């Protein structure tokens, strides 16, 4: 029990004892006890006091600052007795005169200005590192304008989002402004269809968001980097972005995609609702159910694996079934279907008949790009699945796994590059991805062929071993016949007597050679098969990056560490090793020796020479490996630095 609760319990106990004494003395005709005493706000408002005690305001704000009046009141004898009696009967105290300065419960229209008395004061906010322009930002928002111009107190004010007495830090998971609770906070109003209809606004915005790719990442996966309502619309200066600005709003996270869109034919159309016009459900730019461009590589691999297992590798139906399953996935788009939003037969506008020919060409190109994308997705999934399956066997496929990661990067980068709508360049990127997959499959074919011949080479070895055991068993039978007899049976002459000494020596030599060959044939394949598994390594794996001699400053050398692509850079402070897997979506970053930076080709992320995030959406720095120099050789350890 907290100290405040103990104090209130003691006060409550004392009040009831005093009230009982007052009742007894009054009944006896004695003068009322109820000597003048003081009372504070928590004594009459315990629920609000407990909420306030857990808020961020508990140290800096006092009740009179919001409600007026005093912190402590001195009661007359009559007031004190009335309070004691109400406590004894567990009823609400009688109305109390708080004085002329008491404002009571503030009106909603006054709340922003009331909060601003402190939050616009630089001297008060500086110790907490809080901004002092939030009230001015609020008056620029849709909420603030409606309140100030029309006095409409149905709009959101400070207490609707932050709470009244129980205001918590946004870092607290219980706070209304915690990133995971923002949709629900906005939903108090924007999910109220009756309220929203009064403002001619839809009441299903929050529900649309919950089913969007952003909402699923935030609410189901707990991804703090996924945008919520305030990310796009702002918090205190909340206002819906216009069509002309929505691309820039999305570009805060999707920088690389925004550059591609601006360089495309669509980027030159001022009236186009760029991002939401394609990614909004059904092409509706006002719909908040934002759909992803395409399934992530993990989903592609999972879908292919399930398809392959069900069809038992039936190559004739594999790709068609794979494509059909991708079409059933929610939250992903096909370029050809998106093109129909504007270029389909139901094209909006009064002059649609003038664009029939151009629309037909656009739809044909959209279909070509969609097919090219599906082929790229299938090739990647097929290659990644094959690498995953073979990695569980006896073959060492570490290099192929690293190349498969390169293919994964090309898939994700292709999703972003599709926004250029540059058909020749898109097809070149698809060919590059298919070439990587082709190289990986060729290498796997070579290793599988070698494994097949190794297995076939064991046939004569096992045949040799079988013949050896047969001869040994034959010799055993001869010796048994010669030296082992039943009781009462006369001894037979030794069987070896039938063999000349030369023949016996030849037989013995043959048995020795065959025994040695059989032992080698049995243990050599087992040793060869065990070695690849031991070489896979892990946290204790040590990989050489080469000799220090001749290694130029800021030069990169790539290698595989623990089965993942990595690089060692010679910096001005020594050698440093980093994973090349981007911490955003797992693409492979590339080192720029001129700028001393790692760049991600998928979403434009940039990491510094120390692995730190410089720009873009990655949530954390590149993992760093331990690098040591041993007798002039640079060695990387698989364990990552903490």
Tell me what the structure shows.
By secondary structure, this protein is α+β, with helices and mostly antiparallel strands. It has five domains: 86 residues, no CATH class; 133 residues, no CATH class; 153 residues, no CATH class; 76 residues; 99 residues, Rieske [2Fe-2S] iron-sulphur domain (Rieske Iron-sulfur Protein), CATH 2.102.10.10. 52% of the residues lie in helices and 9% in strands. Strands 3-12-11-6-5-4 form a six-stranded antiparallel sheet. A four-stranded antiparallel sheet has the order 7-8-9-10, with no helix packed on it. Strands 1-2 form a two-stranded antiparallel sheet. The longest helix has 61 residues.
Salient structural properties:
alpha+beta, 25 helices, single chain, 12 strands
Radius of gyration (Å): 39 Å
Strands, count:
12
Largest sheet: spatial strand order = 3-12-11-6-5-4
Tally of helical runs: 25
Reported for the largest beta sheet, the result is: 6 strands, antiparallel
What distance lies between the first and last C-alpha atoms, to the nearest angstrom?
A: 40 Å
Percent range of helical residues: 40-55%
Structural class: alpha+beta
Low-confidence stretches: 1-34, 532-539
